[in-house]
Amino acid sequence: MERMDRPVKAVNQAVNDLGGYIRAQRDTAQISLRQLARRAGVSNPYLSQVERGLRKPSAEILQQIAKALRISAEALYVRAGILESRPAGPVVDAVLADTELSERQKQVLLDVYASFRGEDASPGAALARDGVPHGETASHEAIRSDSEE
Questions:
Q1: What structural domains does the chain harbor?
Q2: Which of 21, 58, 76, 90 lies deepest, with the highest CB count within 10 Å?
Q3: Backbone dihedral angles phi then psi of residue 125, each to the nearest 5 degrees
């Protein structure tokens, strides 16, 4: 019986952490529960239950709450266990903190950034140390220089 209790306890802890996180973000933004509920399009009692860890909101509701708080929906998804946490850094943190970008824009920027960071691993994407694109040989260089004359 104890084995089955572990996942239930983990889920309950995640829901409590999520509710506490939302409450902390609301307090930081100096928004009342009623104001946040109105902005997020949920009822006061429902939001109160989420903050107290009694309800686990859907991804859609989390997105509405994140938008109302002007924070990243990804942060709420990670807290709720919907997404896995990924390593952050100054660029990722800056993109996620930008309130002028939509969630979709943030995701696209982070995807492009990740592709640039992984550029060295992709064949043909980066230049070799000698300045020759990967996959080209010295004979390609010779052909190129002959055709330029």
A1: 11-80 (1.10.260.40), 90-120 (no CATH)
A2: 76
A3: -85, -35
